[in-house]
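Below is how a single chain appears once it has passed through the pipeline. First comes the sequence as given, then the structure the pipeline wrote out for it. We keep one example in the README because the format questions we get most often are answered faster by looking than by reading.
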Amino acid sequence: MKAAYSGGMRRLAPSIAPDTAQPPVARGTAAGQDADIIEDTGTPSMRLIDRAEVRERLTYPVCIPIVREAMIAFSTGETRQLLRSIIPLAEGRLFGIMPGALAGDGPFGAKLISVFAGNAAKGRQSHQGVIVIFDPDSGEPVCIAHAGEVTAIRTAAASAVATDALARADARTLAILGTGEQAATHIRAIATVRPIERVLVWGRSAGRAADVAQSMATETGIEISAVDEVRAAVAEADIVCTVSGAIEPILHGAWVRPGTHLNLVGSSYAGPVEVDHDLVVRSRFIVDSREGVLAQGAEFLKAKAAGLIGDEHIVAEIGEVLAGRVEGRRSAEEITAYKSLGHVVQDLASVWALYGA
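Resulting structure:
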């Protein structure tokens, strides 16, 4: 059994070559003849990791360290990825393609993902798709994983990584703005890195907010309640996660108290915004990818277009903070904001770890 690669993320690398692997055998060849057909007898079996297996094995204690390592590797230049390509479909639906590699000599692959916001009403995930992993030695596809479940877990895990790095150590109250799948995943993930005692949930549907609050309170044992107004949700919050499908701002900077940390998650492309210009301007603005946010970070781009900030307003990538290259929170009174677009290297690292375990 051999390790697939030995890069900086090598502790996530599985052994994927079977012990019985044999070199390719050429058929129809003789001395002085070229091989015309190659029979590859050492090809690894294609592994399918379905939604149930992802949910069972990619727990937050597992995923959070993986994402943390991936973001450090991304910001130190070890990983490779292109900006996501997004194709708009009818009725606001989207199809995205996200290619990347964990290292120049490491596993690589892509996520093919659709975003159908209306799926929630049907009891289905809004994000549907597959993540495909390729063997770094042979270039063969060796694993396909359920992209919707990986996305749900690793997105919240990334917010938890940022929260752990940027939120005050004494943060106890969490506000969740939005009632989709990411509401539940963020409650679970943030409670992993801070001793959350109280959660306030807001949504455009009061009934849905109440349902989320009740179900998550039962699951976690945390005091969780629904609130009718965003302003009320953030008034007492130490940590705020915006995980809505809002097109126009639902959160205003004037409502956010000093010392708050925010994870801005709901908008993942240039267009819809969840927070106003004032909040962007007032916050110490840290991103998952500088290149990504300069191209696709809606809240940042609109504040920039209004002439309120320049590119230098992006203080750092979260990977730079985690690597100790840039200071994160500088005082107890500072407002910190983490803009999350999502990275395919987070997906690839998560699936690679599941594949090799």
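The radius of gyration is 22 Å.

See the next section for the split statistics.
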